[in-house]
Design a protein that fits this description.
This protein is mainly α and about 80 residues long. It has two helices and no strands.
Length: about 80
């Protein structure tokens, strides 16, 4: 990474960097970008991604049904007087 790019990034981040810091960040950011290039060369895995366990959505069909039965008229509530 060149010094001009690091200066621009530092300017956008409102950082005042010394010449020593600029040189160090040029090397550090260049190393980080190198790691990303290394990751781009890694073989892809379209099947599972980064999760080693296959994740699937399990959805069941919901069919409308009536599981309740109407109360019969013989089961009416009768208030009781306890006293």
């Amino acid at each position: 990474m060149d010094v001009k790019t690091v200066q621009d990034v530092a300017k956008f981040a409102h950082l005042a960097l010394t010449d020593e810091e600029l040189e160090r960040y040029c090397k550090d950011l260049g190393d980080i970008l190198g790691y990303f290039e290394l990751l781009n060369e890694a073989p892809g895995c379209d099947e599972r991604g980064v999760n080693p366990i296959k994740v699937e959505d399990v959805v069941r069909e919901i069919s409308p049904s009536r599981n309740t039965t109407p109360m019969s008229s013989s089961r009416t509530w009768t208030p009781t007087t306890g006293m």
